[in-house]
Amino acid sequence: MKILFGGFGHSAFVKISGKFSKELLKFGIEFKEVHTHELGPGFPDTRPREWIFNTRRFKKIVNEFKPDFVMTDYQGHFGLAAVREGIPLLLYLRGDYWKETQQAIERTPSKKLFSRFALWYKMKNANECFQRSSLIMPISRHLDDTVKARFPRKPTAIMHHGIDPDGWRSKSEDESMDLNHPCVGFVQNAIIHEKTVEMLVLSKVMRVLPKVTFYWAGNGPCRDAVLPELSKHDNFVWLRNLSSSGVRKFLSSVDVYGLASGLDMLPSTVLEAGMMRRPVIATRVGGVPEMVVEGKTGLLVDRGDHARWVEHIEALLGDEKRRQKMGAEGRRFVEENFTVKNMARQFSDAIGKIT
């Protein structure tokens, strides 16, 4: 069996697709990756001179590779080209497309006519992809429920995002960063507004815990919705974006990993923190409870509950043995449930159900 994958940008899946491809060969599945930007994203995702999607090159790739399925993690021109060529389409859904789109519409001023038209056009393409797809593969059980509520007759199969254990080392094997201790570290981009503004809960937490340093590694268009407030505190440090190796060093150095998010499906950073044996405190949203075994690998907090953040941080920072035990359990949990090998097995099982 052959799968042609059209990857979008620098998604977490694209980063591990090479390893994923090798694992799929064990199931008799050949996997070829094409970056969609090589064919042109199409209107309106880039500059006007690049709006034309290279349909001719797409057909050439298809004719040479002869895929049984086309798979993509972006609901756009690549997926549309597949269904219009009569090739079954597999949609790998990494986020709540509908909620994220609705937020984008709400935050786009009515006077920005082109921006609103662009959103409408993207929605039109995405809806056609969803309607004409052969299988939708959500990244979490929570997202699977969302898809089933919208498309009750559409086949779905959960495919958790996987991590390559070989790329993540323990603190004893890695160079650490020079941080102030005790500390809590956050790695999250500021791209989606609802996801980002939950970080404002940390302002009250920092005020109550002045001797704990809070580090944030991340950036994005929604940065200014939280950074001015968080920066008021002397125990807050903004690290901007870190490289992959920088993230490994950062996670190996913090005492506790935190995720303060208002919207998340299956954040890779929670898996990465687990691989680095860091206990996790995270907001109980979306698919996050599927990644954190409460009381064993980490602790969960309801949105806006700054008092519980304070309680959990004090409890973990005051008990090194508990942190070490949670960290060890976190690594074991990730290795048993969220590796690329598990991801390939889930994919093979999903394909088997529709062939």
Question: What do you see in this structure?
Answer:
This protein has 355 residues and is α/β, with parallel strands linked by helices. It has two domains: 2-162 and 339-354, Rossmann fold (3-Layer(aba) Sandwich), CATH 3.40.50.2000; 165-337, Rossmann fold, CATH 3.40.50.2000. 43% of the residues lie in helices and 15% in strands. The protein contains 14 helices and eleven strands. The protein has helices spanning 12-25, 55-65, 77-84, 97-106, 113-132, 141-150, 193-197, 201-208, 227-230, 244-253, 268-275, 306-317, 320-337, 340-354, and strands spanning 2-7, 30-35, 69-72, 89-93, 135-138, 183-187, 213-217, 236-240, 256-259, 280-283, 298-301. The protein has a six-stranded parallel β-sheet, with helices on both faces. Strands 2-1-3-4-5 form a five-stranded parallel β-sheet, sandwiched between helices. Strand 7 (213-217), helix 9 (227-230) and strand 8 form a beta-alpha-beta unit. Helix 3 crosses helix 5 (113-132), helix 8 (201-208) packs across helix 12 (306-317) and helix 11 packs across helix 13 (320-337). The radius of gyration is 21 Å and the shape is globular. The relative contact order is 0.12.
